[in-house]
Design goal:
By secondary structure, the chain is of the alpha/beta class. The chain has ten helices and eight strands. Helix 3 links the parallel strand 3 and strand 4.
Length: 290
């Protein structure tokens, strides 16, 4: 690819102290239990070709958003930041207006997968906060699991002019038996969102959804998932992301990039260009390369 946009990556500094999900004592998280800076990301991307990156929040604080905006203002390849604002708070609209003064601020991501109330998205965000997102031309990243898709559909139908993208393809249960109700929940929910709303979807975070036993056959396991996403959303509503450094829990950035190329080999070069670059550039309004 001559132009690849990473629509989903993370940078963090542990001393900031607000990454509650990152348990430093959990051996399973050891590969990502350290600081990750932009230089680390560039070094990990040895395949090259990445001309822009969207850095996404990894902590539910405004301080995290401000931290990432500071990085974006220092590095040209950080084209935008998806931050965090509590949309249920009375000051949410004002906070969004303040953050939007920085052109690198592209939108917000409530960490819905970590909120116990699966209906939070339909009941808690304030109307004025959602209106602020729309009026400020900001976006909404939906970090959801299959059980959240019904609520996300209701939210998307209620706000058709709000640009929404589903992170990590809603984490399909590829390691579960087909009898698991989440499998049908994922297929039905994603197909409905694709058919009846304008929601987009990220092809990201899939490698870490595989079991250890599945990883040697990642292409075989994930090809049907990607084929479904292409059939449902089409290249114009799909965008690629690395989910670095979380991807390190299951492989490397280069391994995921190469695997993604194989998974998308069945579409045309023009369609690959949309998925690897064009869709993200339009969605996050980051323009074309100079």
């Amino acid at each position: 690819m001559t132009d690849r946009v990473d629509a989903h990556c993370h940078l963090w500094a542990l001393k900031r102290g607000d990454y509650g999900w990152l348990d430093l004592d959990d051996p399973a998280l050891a590969p990502i239990a350290r600081d990750f800076e932009i230089g680390d990301l560039r070094a990990a991307d040895t395949m090259g070709g990445c001309t822009a990156r969207i850095v996404v929040q990894a902590a539910p604080t405004v301080a995290e958003t401000e931290f990432l905006l500071g990085l974006a203002n220092g590095y040209d390849d950080i084209a935008g930041v998806v931050g965090w604002v509590d949309l249920a708070q009375p000051d949410a609209a004002a906070t969004l207006e303040t953050l939007a003064q920085d052109v690198a601020f592209k939108g917000v991501r409530p960490m819905l997968q970590d909120i116990p109330d699966v209906n939070w998205i339909t009941t808690r965000p304030r109307t004025d906060a959602i209106e602020a997102l729309i009026n400020l031309n900001l976006t909404f990243d939906a970090l959801v699991l299959p059980q959240h898709l019904a609520g996300l559909f209701e939210f998307a139908m209620a706000h058709p002019t709000l640009p929404i993208v589903i992170d990590h393809a809603a984490k399909p249960t590829v390691s579960a038996d087909m009898s698991d109700p989440r499998c049908a929940m994922w297929r039905d929910g994603m197909a409905r969102l694709a058919a009846e709303t304008n929601v987009c979807c990220k092809i990201s975070g899939l490698l870490t959804e595989l079991s250890i036993d599945q990883r040697p056959n990642a292409a075989e396991v994930l090809q049907p998932v990607v084929d479904d996403l292409i059939a449902w959303f089409g290249p114009d509503r799909l965008m690629w992301g690395s989910d670095w450094p979380v991807v390190n829990l299951a492989g490397s950035l280069d391994e995921w990039t190469a695997l993604s190329g194989g998974l998308l080999a069945g579409v045309s070069d023009i369609e690959q260009g949309r998925i690897f670059s064009g869709t993200a550039r339009e969605f996050y309004q980051i323009g074309e390369i100079a």
